[in-house]
Amino acid sequence: MTNFISLGSCTKEEITGLLNKADQLKYELKNGIEHKLLSGKSLGMIFSKSSTRTRVSFEVGMYQLGGNAMFLPSAELQLGRGEPVKDTARVLSRYLDAIMIRTYKHSEIEELARYATVPVINGLSDFAHPCQALGDLMTIREYKTSFKSLKVCFIGDGNNVANSLLAGCMKMGIAVSIACPKGHEPLKSVMETGKETGLLEVTNDPVLAAKEADVVYTDVWYSMGDEKSADARRVEFKNFQVNDSLLSVAKPDAIVLHCLPAHRGEEITDEVLEAHSEEIFNQTENRLHAQKAVLATLMLNH
Ligand code: CP
Ligand code: NVA
């Protein structure tokens, strides 16, 4: 594994290796066992969009691994004044040991990876959020012990978070179901993997998707970049809410996950979020451990 850009391009074995490493790093952190695996290494973090979790967890993760992380808002780089991605990639590769990037266009990340000579990590694009999905898989395995015979459902927009969750789950052999309004289905590549594996159900009916589910997942109805269509989406998505009534059709021990930030009263009610806050904030924490596994794996193998 040279980069971490999408879960679809990782093998099942690679994902399992990352999850095992993440569990080990979490154990070491909780038990005060030092793990300065990346001493002397530097990570650059390019951000073209806002972030709380991704920025802080990557920065703290590098610190805990003995390395250093640099926050590089794209508007303050020459990149923001038009320096080409391919030049930025080659320049940063001369200073850094890895680059994490959060941006709009997925193709920009692919171009960065093509020209960089150090590992590139996707910290979210309009298409994918693999760091989130890795933390999600870690959380699901933690709560459900294994991936065997599980059903994961996603309610809402077939967005970056949904694409990566569905791709990651299918890679691990988990049956997935997504309920979304027509026209908001996941990426074509995810739909095709669904057809090949027979593991994906796509429906416009949230009740069908959530029926007997072990994990009920949702994310905002309008992502960063979609704000102009927020009002229209509030109407279009109004039946795609995770609330008590929808949860009543899931398994009684179903967990509820949300990548956060949440819009309470839209994709999830305040009551459901608070009732499942333990799971949701453990999920948030697991981003740290999962990303440390990615950083250590990529940088030590480079
Ligand atoms: N879930 C997630 O990626 O959060 P941030 O946008 O705060 O990084
Ligand atoms: N789908 C959301 C996720 C934020 C972490 C967005 O892209 O804005």
CATH architecture grouping of the largest domain = 3-Layer(aba) Sandwich
Strand order of the largest sheet: 7-6-5-8-9
Helix content: 40-55%
Major beta-sheet overview: 5 strands, parallel
Strand element count: 9
Instruction: Output the structural class.
Output: alpha/beta
CATH class identity of the largest domain: Alpha Beta
Q: Based on Cα principal axes, name the global outline.
A: globular
- The overall average pLDDT, rounded, is 98
SSE ordering: HEHEHEHEHEHEHEHEHHEHH
The gyration radius over C-alpha positions equals 19 Å
Distance between the termini: 9 Å
Number of helices: 12
Number of domains: 2
Amount of beta strand: 5-15%
CATH superfamily caption of the largest domain: Aspartate/ornithine carbamoyltransferase
CATH topology of the largest domain: Rossmann fold
Low-confidence stretches: none
* Distinct ligands, ions and cofactors found in the model: phosphoric acid mono(formamide)ester, norvaline
